[in-house]
Every structure is written in structure tokens, then in C-alpha cells.
# Entry
Amino acid sequence: MLSESIQSELGEIVGNEHLLTSPEALICYSYDGTFHESLPEAVILPADTAEIAQVLELCNRQRIPVIPRGMASGLAAATVPVDGGLILNTVRLNRLLEIDKANMMATVQAGIITSDLQLEVEKLGLFYPPDPSSVRHSTIGGNIACNAGGPRCLKYGITGDYVMALEVVLADGRILRTGGKAIKNVTGYDLVSLFTGSEGTLGVITEATLKLIALPEAKRTAQAIFPRLEDASKSVNAVLWGGIVPATLELMDETAINAVEDYMQLGLPRDAEAILIIETDGDPADAARDMDVVARICSEGGASEVRIAKTPAESDELWRARRSISGSLGRKRPNKLGEDISVPRSAIPDTIRGIKEISQNRNLPIVIFGHAGDGNLHPNILFDKNDPEEWQRVQAAVADLFGLAVAVGGTLSGEHGVGTLKKPFLESDVGPVAIDVMRSVRHALDPHGILNPGKIFD
Amino acid sequence: MNVKITSPSEFQSAEIVTDRQNPACIRCGLCLATCPVYRTTLRETDSPRGKIALLNAVADDRLEVGQEFSERYYGCLLCGACATICPSGVPLEEIIQAARDDMSLHKLEPERLAQLGRIIAEHHNISGEDNAHRLLWTANMEDEPMALKPRETADVVYFVGCVGSFFPRSYRLPQTMVQLLEKADIDHAVLGGEEWCCGYPLLINGELDQASELIQHNLEAIKSMNPEKVVFTCPSCLHIWNHVYRSVAGEELPFELLHATQLLADLVDAGKLRFRELPAQRVTYHDPCDLGRKEKIFDAPRRVLQAIPGVELVEMRDNRANSHCCGGGGNLETFNAELSYAISDLRLGQAQEVEAKVIASACQQCERTLTEAARRNRVRIRVLDVAELALQALEE
Ligand SMILES: Cc1cc2nc3c(=O)[nH]c(=O)nc-3n(C[C@H](O)[C@H](O)[C@H](O)COP(=O)(O)OP(=O)(O)OC[C@H]3O[C@@H](n4cnc5c(N)ncnc54)[C@H](O)[C@@H]3O)c2cc1C
# Structure
């Protein structure tokens, strides 16, 4: 527990009602979107940058670990306070500060919910494309700290591609403002990129200026069923070779198809090896023409069926299979571990075959889906964490998965980050020199190691 | 006072959460996106995910149940938005209700709510007035309604509910309803002092065990009128009738239970209510949680509104199954009015966003909270019941 005097200092900074120390509060801030949990010593909910700066100055002086937290949808146990300390929740900084129409940029506080920002800019015909599936329950600060991406990333890129400027409170309480609205900017190191993806270990992000683009007018959705995975993979390539970049290219493999069928009975073909959900967008004529080409390529490439939605309702229907995967998992086994390995696109069929082998060898159900355009796969291991022997096998399977990803030329994480969960595997992926450089950077910015200790690497 | 729970079976809600047969919370956090209480307080402790985490801690003996725990569970609208959005299918409504039952059992419910329970037991209504005054709302009507005619039986019994009967600001709704029934030539009656509180406030306070006398009484009172249909303007009364009365009766009820908007929609379809044109107006429909999400009645009220010439129906951002509570749910207002108001303001904001001039709803509680919100915020939006718009369109 934090001492009485530290608690009262913290309470003075933010107001006592925004410092939580009850057992109930500690429990509710002990977890994220994974099954990991560990109690913090206190939770603080500052109102603005100035308060955060004071909190960090105090914690740095007193060597109190500070764990930044957005909406705790993270999937790497990156905001779980593994060594106690103070949870610093940024959700009260949730204002949209400015929409600059002339430069097509928005400036927001870090705690704004991503979809709230999207809704506001869309009212003006603007578009903030990054779309982690958690847009409605994650914050911009969390998205930047994890460099989150989603289905649209093949065409539109990931969070980091849209961050123009940041305000960050450093470990010692100093406030850094870096970047700006100039598109070209090579003045000094690119600190915006440094903080993007830093998982709360280098500073607390308090404000961001984000690039916007024009909202595409129209969208077309199709679902293509492939009896053979190999054909799905080749068709994806053929589409891209054809000069078409679909807005999304989602893949469900046969394990995901069957998981959804078990739960929803949508009438998906259980013997198909892959379903692709494809979306084209742009002006109405372009979106439609692109979709015609995509459909032709898929049919010629071995799809047994290609359905194109004619109405928004039909498009919703086509998405239903993909959207139901998440819900179907919790019904099969009490716990799931969702990985997000990322491999070169051409390695998708080999990787999926490899994952199925791991599933058999370790005797664990693994459901696979992902983003076919960018090679980011989500193998979800289903298990019961109350069974210690099974948990052992899960850990072994995770190691196998990461080994497989690296072996085919890929990487551990395409989206969720390293956090606590992938920490043991980091060096095998990036190598000792990279870790050393990262460690030096971290030490320079946070010499006392108060920011999110125990995460990414030690 | 803290209560140490030594086995989950002393706490039924903890048992449901840990029951391996039920889908488990995977902590994805999607419920935070739709929980009006979380969206207002921004506290994980108020979120559905947090509530489940607390119960898990109780089950594992990591947390003693006390004041704060109780406040978290009573600081909930019971709106059911979390249960609708949960991708894993965690039975959130059942869990939250069971937790309130547990707390009432362990004497941890807020005093204000316990008081309400005592008033209902003594007076058979929520206001504490003499129950014989249930028909005061008829006193200032121009023509004495036919519903007051003494009678043995009726085709339709209109169950008015406590709010419409005892709160002068809500009198307009039963007044409207009986006029509509008259205009449609329906043989109908009200129960007056023989109508007792339906028991819904006890149900949601976790005191359903104290409601059996009320339920038995109402069942008998209505059966004795031998109706074909019982119609409700209050979605909460309808909800408890549908979900509790049926099972208490132990047999198929010999009459149909309908919400007023369902009856009105049927009458419109049958050509028994013909609307004249109202001045052009942009109307949005607010789905009451007990009527929409809980009774799945989404279309009937919209059908009535769409049948009124001059009404342009627009949908708010959160509608139908994803509707946003008005702030008046779960008895929250009784013990945390400020929070309840902040939530109403959010809903009012959604109506402003679609530039509605009228919010039509189908629940006197929603009407009251949203009217208050409009007044507090000095927003010029009228809040009306679907039935009131229907009556206007018959009279123009
Ligand atoms: C159902 C579901 C679907 C998901 N889908 C995707 C997906 O498609 N793509 C994807 O990339 N991710 C996805 N995620 C993972 C997660 O939603 C993202 O990582 C998201 O960016 C986390 O945001 P958050 O606000 O919840 O952050 P948190 O989980 O609270 O925190 C995550 C990390 O960011 C740090 N952090 C948070 N706020 C700040 C801040 N202001 N300053 C500094 N550091 C901060 C924390 O310390 C922690 O290290 C999904 C998660 C779930 C549960």
C-alpha cells in the first residue's frame, strides 16, 4: 500500500474522489482484456495534463511504479500492474479539442474513445481509418501506445500512420510536445514514432493530433467460400496484383467456420477450408467495379461461391460470420488466449497448416482467423485455466506458435504488442542488439524505471 | 457492515458467475461501450465487467461484501444493454438481479429502497397514499370515462400502474389511454382500488419474496373480470406480469398480456383508429428498456407513429435493442439522482443530434426523466407518449 502521506499528496493533486483505494476499486483495475490480474496499490484518475505531470513528478521522486491505463481492452497484459504501483487512468481526458478542416486533422485528448472520435469526424465527411475491432471500447491513447491496427490496415494503414503530433508527460513530470501539422517533418529524431507503440513505458500520452482523410462514399461487401485454403491465398495475391487494394480482406479458416457454426448455425459450409470477407470502397462506381473484378478473380481462382451484398443489411449479414467468432470462443471453453502473429502474406497457408499441427500435438483447440491481406493471423487457443496441466500445454503451444511465426519469416505480434505475455519471446524475435537499444532508450527517458515496469523487456 | 461470504452458495450471484455451465466473462470490455453508467462515471467499478470481477473476487474469498459493493450493484439501471452486447453471452441480467436479491437477503440494500419496500407492503402502492385513491386521475376529465362504470366483466382490463395513478404529472397517460379505448369502441375497465402495485419495484430491489401477496391479489382481481386482454401503459408492469406472474400462476394465464402500443398498432391495422394529419414534426422514438430490450417490442410503437400523417420518424444513434436508457431505470434515481440525471442528459443529447422536436416514448418513467432533462437543459423538445400523439391525431 502507498503510505498515508503519499496518498494525501496524490489526493491533493487530483481531488480525493479521483484517487481510489478501496478493495473493490483495486480489484476492478487489476486486469485488462486477458485473463491476467494483479492488484495495484491505488488508482488515480487525473483530469488533465497538468495533474498528470504533478502525479509523475511525485511518483518519480518517490519511486512509485505508474501504470498508464486506457480502457483496458489490451490483449498483452500490458496494463496489468504486475508489481503493484499506481494505475494512472487517462479516461477523464476525453475531449475532442479541434477538428481542423483545412488541414484535415483532429486534435484529441488521449482518453477519448476511438469510435467517438470517428463518429464526430464522419459528421463532417472526414474519416479516421484505423479500426482495431475494439474501437468502441478502447482509447486513442491506448491505440497509440499499442500502435493498434485493424482489418482496414492493408489499404489505410495503422494508428501510427495517422499520428502527426503528441503531447506526452515524461517520467519526471516534464511535458513534451512533439511533431506538428506539417506533413513533411525531418527536424530531429522522429519522437512521435518513438512513443507510438511504447506500451506506456516511455511516457504518458495526453494529447494527439491525428491525420484524417475524406470519407469514402461507398462500400461493397462480398463473401467468398474456398474449398481449399491454398486457392484463397492465391486469389488474395491475384487481387492485389490486379491493382486492387480492398479495404478489408478477412480470412476465416475451417476451425473458425466450424466454431461459428457450432454456436450460430448460420449455414456456413463446414468442409470449406477458408472464407474470405472482402470489402472494396471509394466512389460508388469504383467500389462496384473493383468488387466485380475481385469476384471474378475469386471465382476463377477456385471459390465455390461468391456472394456480393446488394444492401447494407445484406452486407451486415455477410459480416455476421466474422463478427460471431469472438462470441463463439467463450462458449467452447472458459478461457482463450488470442495471439496475433504476423507473417509474410505468401506464408499464410504454411502457417495455418503449422498451427493445426500444433493444435494436434498439444491437444488443444485452436481457432484461426485473421487478416489475409497483411498476413496477421489470430490463432485463439481455447482452454481452462483452472486445469494446471492444460495451462502447461497452453504455454508450450504459445512457444510453438511464436517459433513457427519467426521460422516462416514473420513476427510475434502484429497488433496487440508485447506487454507481459510476449516478453519471454521478445529476444528470439528482435535479437539482443535491438533489446539493448530499446533498454538504453527506456533508461534515458525513465532512469528510475517507474513507468510500466516489467513490461516488454526487463 | 461487511459480510464475509464463506461459500458461494450463500451468495447466489457469485454461484452463477462461477458456474462452469454458464459462459464466462472473457474481459473484452465491450460492455463498457454501451453501459450508460460507465459512460457517465468512467469508472471500471461501475462497469458490467467490473461487477463480474467483484463477484469473482467474492466467490474466491478475496473480497468481503459491504457498503461499496452494494452501491456498485444498486448503482445500475438494470437496462440490460450489457447483456445484449456481450459477445460471450454472460447472463448479466440474471447475475445483476441475483446480486440484488443477495444484498437484500444480507440486509445490504440502501435504506431508501428498503423504505420503499415497506411502503408498498403497507399501502399496496409506491406513493404511500390510500390505495382507494387510485382513480384520482379521472377527477378533472371533462367527461367521466366509461372505464369508471361499475361492472362485473370486461373484454379488456387496463392495468394503470402506480405512476399513472398517483403522480399528477403522469395523469395524462391514463386519461389518454381510456379516451383511446373509448374511441376505438372497446369494452374496457380499470380496477381502481383493487389494483395493487405490480411488485416490480420489489423485484428489482431484490425483495421479490415480499411480492407474493400483491401478485396473488392482482391475479385474482383480474381473473374475476374475465377479460380477453390485459393492457398496460407501463412496460415495467408488463415485464413482471410476463416474467413472474405467469410462473406464479402456475398455469397458462386465461388472458393475453399486451402493451398499449401493441393494442394501438392492432387497432390501426384493423382500421379502428384513423388518424388525421398533424402539423409536420420530426419525432424520434425512445425505446424503453423494459419494453424494447426486455419484451422485444420494437415495431408496434413505431407502426403507430408511422401511421400518423405529418410525423417524420427519425432514429437516434442508439435504438431498438441497442437503445440507451433514459436514466430512470433500476430505481437508480431514488438513491443517486445526480448520476441518473447525467445519464438522461446523454439520451437527450442523442435526440438533439438527430434534430428531433418530439421524443415519443411508451413508458411514463422515461417520459418523466426525459421531460426533466429537457427542462434542466433548457432544450425545446417535447416528450410525449405514443398514445398521446395518437389521441392528438384523432382529435385534430
Ligand atoms: C475484443 C477485442 C478486439 C481487439 N481487436 C484489436 C484489433 O483489431 N487490433 C488491435 O491492434 N488491437 C485489438 N485489440 C487490443 C486492444 O484493444 C488495443 O491494444 C487497444 O489499443 C488498447 O487500448 P486501451 O485504451 O484499451 O488501452 P489499455 O488496454 O488500457 O492499455 C494498453 C497499453 O497502452 C498503454 N496506455 C494506455 N493509455 C496510455 C496513454 N494515454 N499513454 C501511454 N500509454 C498508455 C498501457 O500502459 C498499456 O501498455 C482488441 C482487444 C479486444 C478485447
User: Anything to note?
Assistant: The longest strand of chain A covers residues 218-226. Residues 340 and 378 of chain A are 5 Å apart (CA to CA).
